[in-house]
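Hi Prof. W.,

I finally got the 3-oxoacyl-[acyl-carrier-protein] synthase-3 prediction working! I wasn't sure whether to trim anything, so I left the full sequence exactly as given:
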Amino acid sequence: MTKKIYTKIIGTGRCIPPKVVKNEYFLDYEFYDPSTRKPFEKSNEEIVTKFQEITNIVERCWAGDDQMNSDLATIAVKDACDSAGIDPETLDFIIFGHNFGDVHPDQTCVDTLPGLANRVKRNLDIKNPACICHDVISGCPGWTQGMIVADAYIRSETFKRGVVIGSDTLSRVSDPHDRDSMIFSDGAGATIVEAVASDEPVGILAHSSRSDCNPYANLLTFGKSLNPDFEGEDLYIKMAGHRLYVYALSHVPGVVKDSLDKAGLHLKDVKKVLIHQANEKMDEAILKGVFKLYKEKEIPAGIMPMSIEKLGNSSTATVPTLLDIVAKGDMEGQQINKGDYIVLCSVGAGMNINSIVYKWD
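And this is what came out:
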């Protein structure tokens, strides 16, 4: 039997920033109603309590003032290289999934020159000019999209080994007068991927994607602060939360099923579903939607590990960070074993969805 080339994860890494911000931190904020652009009549205690009930976010981590997004990513890549037992100099490519570049702590100016993948290569002091670098901007699914690109590189035998990064510092593009600022956090995750020749399917088995740019391209945008008197001309991330919620519930389950169909698997074969950590109730509803497509009523306990309670929504970093936590046995009651089929899924930017089916080896 002729062996086929598959894309295998040989190492994972993460960077959880040092600044822990609990929900109580926001009790002194002045939140504005997005529909009226006036302060809410509700108390902050009520707003924060309701927020926690809906999202299950209790705390989140923010980057230190001396850390940029590319710095977090560099730490995650070093961790992944150590996990894989490889020298960064052996990497053929660096793919960096992010959304806002390196944002300085005192401004929301997006800095993407040079590209962040190039900055990571510089930070790692990789000398090899054949190690290519490029960024992927695809909303929260930046890392899953990067993994799909890496799979194409490897299956085409263009490259043999690389790293895919998901890293963002959303705290620096959050409007302090917007309730959604409580959702966002900072972090980085990275995976070392490598070509393996195998008689049996292993690593990335299949994937499915969709982008609904019309009419959903305006669900996540940049805009001015909700407070019309807020000083400065900075722009902040703006999210049509309810419409995003409806979009995700309507379309993510079908993309997950399509990826499993392509892999020739049934939902019952799946041991873990690692999904973008945006809102715990939303993720639970998405998972129920997947099981409903298979007419399955019972959802196995522990099939969907959650990190959002302590880490918040770090956009492109949520899935690779969660993968690293679970793969290294750092989450109580969660593990991935040899031969397990897992789903890696993300939805974001109001219009992009990816689902990857992976066989752990």
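The chain has two domains: 4-198, 203-359. Does that look reasonable to you?

Thanks,
D.
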